[in-house]
Amino acid sequence: MKIHEYQAKELLGQYGAPVPGGYCVTTPEEAYEAAKNYGKCVIKAQIHSGGRGKGGGVKVANSPEEAKAIAEKMIGMNLVTHQTGPQGKKVRKVLVTEAVAYKHEYYLSVAGDNENARLTIIASREGGTEIEEVAANRPEAIVQTPVSAVLGFKSYEAIDIADRIGLPEALKPQFTKLLASMTRLYLEKDCSLVEINPLVETDDGLLCLDAKVNFDDNAVYRHPDIAALRDKDEEDPKEVRASEYDLSYISLDGSIGCLVNGAGLAMSTMDIIKSFGGQPANFLDVGGSATAEKVAAAFEILLSDENVKAIFINIFGGIMKCDVIAEGVVTAARTIGVKVPIIVRLEGTNVALGKKILAESGMNIISAADMADGARKAVAAAAGR
Ligand code: GDP
Ligand code: MN
Q: Which stretches of the chain drop beneath a pLDDT of 70?
């Protein structure tokens, strides 16, 4: 789960990190009022995506009037950054914050290292908007330090990192405290990333000018305060709908909708579609305990995607029974109507009954002998062959 910059800064502030104040607003008038608190201010688009600076989502205003004019243009705009994809993201709110003068931009983050069951602190002397280029072209400028998830972070590790990124001596105590705050936040709130970029050096010490905090979806239920920060406007409506039904669904940009049970089968279905030259429109696992109602919701989500040109239903009935899947599909198809071909591969518990329900539904169904046959037929159908 992602949150906005203004929320991330608030959270970091609660953990004792040095963050600038600010006002998150939704209208140009509010931006005007907020800007009165500052001589010079920065207007920052609040979207769940980075690269805003380069994309035109971070602008300096020298007066409340200018802040209002910038907010007028920014609120409602479709902001395209190298992280949003070409479709961009609609800006619904902006952060009005003091324009801070700084001497240097550093990069600092805490991320997970699942492979080694540890945390990794990543730091660089060359923070700012070019960090991706630095990482790609000069990886030696990025310093990585493993940290135990059990013992937590130790002060001497911070001193070592500070030395390796050439942090001035006087800033070390503050840097140590900041890293302690970041790792504590990471562990206590089940984060998957706590990132400060840039972390700037000002005359008064270090300041987190931008912050990004992501959470492990599977652990959000443990933190009602974090769950409350969720902004559904920023999420794919199909994914929001899927989460209401407790379905594992991820939108992709291909043309073949996949309805599958089991995460492993869902992954291999995507792979086999690709190996026959097609592109999946989604990852969808209806799970083992899906009801006909849940399957109907899943099918409806697939059908609501305009890019879907064919649907591949690939079910292995184990705990999940084939007739339950078939019933859900037919119910959804009756209420919404289906215009695309449906390729079905059913196997396992109650397979005969499932096939019968589908055959008698009157839908345009192409049955497949096995998974490869199904994938081949789905790719052909999506291509209009
Ligand atoms: P991002 O591009 O989405 O990561 O947005 P950032 O918040 O990191 O802003 C991009 C860049 O704008 C930063 O690297 C800074 O150079 C600049 N910037 C952001 N806030 C301020 C500020 O308060 N003062 C100054 N001088 N520059 C800022
Ligand atoms: Mn940034």
A: none
For the record, the structure tokens of 261 come out as 């049970």
What pTM does this model have? Answer: 0.84
Q: Clarify whether 195 is annotated catalytic.
A: yes
Report the separation in Å between the CA atom of 53 and the middle of ligand 1, taken as the mean of its atom positions. Answer: 6
Is 105 an active-site residue? no
pLDDT tens digit string along 236-259? 888 889 988 988 899 998 999 999
Instruction: Kindly give the distance from the C-alpha atom of residue 42 to the centroid of ligand 2, in angstroms, as a whole number.
Output: 13
Question: Which residues form ligand 1's pocket by a CB distance below 6 Å?
Answer: 42, 44, 50-53, 58, 99-100, 105, 128-129, 197-198, 209-210
Which residues are close to ligand 2, an ion, with C-beta < 5 A? 197, 210
Catalytic residue among 15, 32, 38, 107: 107
